[in-house]
């Protein structure tokens, strides 16, 4: 049976974005925390996938999103990225349609390959917080205290009327 409602965000992303639920959606304090050591690029990835891994993995580790248990999912994203790039480059060089021997016009297979891998990439991107909408919810490095927040001062009746 399928689970109901939205998929929960990873705790690491929730902690970065702050308490948007105002205490109604508490952070799971008992969530397993896999290790973030020895995160290495798999040697079986395509060269373009390895380049994508090396580009994104350090920042995902720093954010606390990429752990040892997520390596296969992230490798899947990187591999889909490499296949998508390969199909896009083929279409840039050879076009998207061709004429069959019987005279029909048909799409090259790389069109569906590119579309399928783009969908795979998009689903992995949302899992790792790599989409613009998921990034917009993250407030990384926001260490502002209540004393620095003018609205908090107003709400706490500590606002002085000095202009």
Structural class: mainly alpha
Through-space gap between termini: 60 Å
Q: For the largest beta sheet, what order do the strands appear in spatially?
A: 1-2
Residue share in helices? 40-55%
Evaluate the radius of gyration: 23 Å
Order of helices and strands: HHHEEHHH
Look at the structure and give the mean pLDDT. Answer: 79
Task: Report strand %.
Answer: under 5%
Shape: elongated
The main sheet comes to:
2 strands, antiparallel
As residue ranges, the low-confidence spans are 140-146
Extended strand count = 2
- Helix count, per DSSP? 6
Characterize this entry briefly.
The protein has 163 residues and is mainly alpha-helical. Helices cover 48% and strands 4% of the residues.
List the helices and strands and how they pair.
Elements: H1 11-17, H2 47-63, H3 71-94, E1 97-99, E2 105-107, H4 109-128, H5 132-136, H6 150-155
Antiparallel strand pairs: 1-2
Helix pairs in contact: 2-3, 3-4
Descriptive account of the structure:
The protein is mainly α. The chain has helices at residues 11-17, 47-63, 71-94, 109-128, 132-136, 150-155, and strands at 97-99, 105-107. A two-stranded antiparallel ribbon has the order 1-2. Helix 3 runs antiparallel to helix 4. The longest helix has 24 residues, at 71-94. The chain starts with 10 loop residues before the first helix and ends in an 8-residue tail after the last helix.
Task: Give me some keywords for this one.
163 residues; mainly alpha; 48% helix; 4% strand; elongated
């Amino acid at each position: 049976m399928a689970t109901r409602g939205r998929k929960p965000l990873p705790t690491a992303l929730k902690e970065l974005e702050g308490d948007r639920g105002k205490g109604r959606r508490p952070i799971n304090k008992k969530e397993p925390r896999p290790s973030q050591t020895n995160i290495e690029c798999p040697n079986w990835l395509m060269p373009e996938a390895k380049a994508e891994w090396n580009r994104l993995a350090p920042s995902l580790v720093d954010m606390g999103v990429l752990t040892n248990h997520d390596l296969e999912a992230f490798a899947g994203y990187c591999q889909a990225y490499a296949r998508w790039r390969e199909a896009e480059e083929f279409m840039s060089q050879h076009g998207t349609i061709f004429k069959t021997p019987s005279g029909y016009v048909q799409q090259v297979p790389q069109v569906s390959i590119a579309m399928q891998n783009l969908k795979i990439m998009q689903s992995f991107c949302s899992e790792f917080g790599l989409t613009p909408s998921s990034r917009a919810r993250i407030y990384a490095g926001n260490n502002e205290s209540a004393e620095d927040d003018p609205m908090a001062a107003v709400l706490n009746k500590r606002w002085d009327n000095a202009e």
